[in-house]
Amino acid sequence: MAGPKYPKIVGFELVEQIGGGGFATVFRAVNVAQHRVAACKLIMFTEETTEKERKTFDKEMRIHTALKHENVLEFMNAVIVELKHKLIYIPGIYMLLELASGGDLFDKIAANVGVSEEVAHLYFNQLIAGMHYIHEQGVCHRDLKPENLLLDAAGTLKITDFGLSAVFRLKESGKTRMLTERCGSLPYVAPELNSDRPYHAEPIDVWGVGVILFTLLAGNTPWDEPSAKSAEFRRYVSGEIFSEDPWCRIPYEAMSLIKGMLTVDPEKRLTLRDVFQHSWVMRPSQLASSRNPAELAMRLTQNLRENGDLGLAAPNFTGKSDDAMDVDGPSAHKSQFTQSLMLFSQTQHGSRYTPNLTRFYSSLGPSLLIALIKEYLEQPDVGVKCKLGAEPIVNERGIEVYRMRIGGWDARKQMFKGWVDVEKFAYRGEEGAFCLMRRDEGSPISWRQLWKAIILSPAVEPHVLRK
Ligand SMILES: Nc1ncnc2c1ncn2[C@@H]1O[C@H](COP(=O)(O)OP(=O)(O)O)[C@@H](O)[C@H]1O
Ligand SMILES: [Mg+2]
């Protein structure tokens, strides 16, 4: 007898996993009859799920459903399968969300380089527009970080993941409360969360927004954590850090805004209202007014192009991709933006959509390539844990792939997990391979750094195909 299945959610079927964090697994979902795609975030229930956990999942759903804004990922529908139905369906909360076809914003950003001021300005403005709306609804996000900032098919920023959010102001009475839970990831968390006193909600998100602006412009977060344990944070507080790279590279006006948002005392920190009136935010934007998705994609990935990362991810040696067969089913993600971003890669079986730029081609066959990658990652000084089956598997698309689970800790002491998939790819009549790295937990920036380190490792490097 077949085991329990995923239910259909208003006609949408779960197709393949595209992400997953602590509690959740995210799938691409397809409504075949209506030719529509979506994402489905599943939080599974087990016998061990506590009442308290159930309440937080319900809260995420309730809060996210109520938020409707251009820069907030759209919540479309939800289905709850209770444990008593576990013989038929996999129990859990199924949240049907708009599919962020452009993938993660920070997957497109060169590590330790960042993006131009123009691009940072555009996305920063979208971020604060979304955050202003969220706060206006009385909600505090509390988990702002690159992993939770996605792009839609037109390249518009979408804030998502309300798993740690909280209502701090009641809409009816206007009554505001202070919050008490300690939460969020250390590199993005505000310093007042180090103490166990209650804290004001809004300044927490302003701090997170400040760290994100720095990360856009510098290509990395400013510190591991905002406490005396971090040497960088100590040098920030003392002011020594401003003469060091990357701080000294950030233009004066943007720096003044960052310092205002990253003010240690929450009472003196800029409010979102102040941020909107800051001269760096108010400056006119050519990029915003031109509304040209192809140009936006070019500008966003300019530094990836310049440092060669884009040439590795999308060598484009196979000629025009437009002619290739699309093996991807209904493709609502085919837009000028996603095409210019080169989110479609050539495989043995035609053109394949993937929201990630962490991929490359090699002149070695799959079994050899995956073995070399594993050997590199397992070196003591790299220290990534790998789990690889002896045989290739047949994936969701019916294609044979070597699939390896990997996980470890990044330079900012954050955990990451993901998959390395290697499939066959004929290159000039010889057997080569296509390697795709899919992250499901951790920072997209460190994921990109790991991808680059694999490509540059001595055993792999000679076999990598470039533009
Ligand atoms: N609507 C979506 N479209 C595309 N990718 C998504 C979508 N929602 C989530 N993801 C991917 O899945 C990851 C985890 O989703 P998220 O909602 O942040 O779950 P968690 O609560 O486990 O962190 C995201 O970082 C992102 O890469
Ligand atoms: Mg998340």
Automatic annotation (TrEMBL):
Q: Which domain of life is it from?
A: Eukaryota
UniProt cross-references to InterPro entries, sorted A to Z: Kinase-like_dom_sf, Prot_kinase_dom, Protein_kinase_ATP_BS, Ser/Thr_kinase_AS
> For binding ATP, which residues are annotated in this chain's numbering?
41
Q: Name one GO molecular function term.
A: protein serine/threonine kinase activity
Cross-referenced PROSITE patterns: PROTEIN_KINASE_ATP (PS00107), PROTEIN_KINASE_DOM (PS50011), PROTEIN_KINASE_ST (PS00108)
Q: Which GO terms describe its cellular component?
A: cytoplasm
- What does the UniProt keyword field contain? ATP-binding, Kinase, Nucleotide-binding, Serine/threonine-protein kinase, Transferase
One GO term of the biological process aspect: intracellular signal transduction
Q: Which residues form the Protein kinase domain?
A: 12-281
Pfam families to which the protein is assigned, alphabetical: Pkinase (PF00069)
PANTHER family associated with the record: KP78A-RELATED (PTHR24346:SF82), MAP/MICROTUBULE AFFINITY-REGULATING KINASE (PTHR24346)
Q: Which family does it belong to?
A: Belongs to the protein kinase superfamily. CAMK Ser/Thr protein kinase family. NIM1 subfamily.
User: Could you identify this protein by its name?
Assistant: Protein kinase domain-containing protein
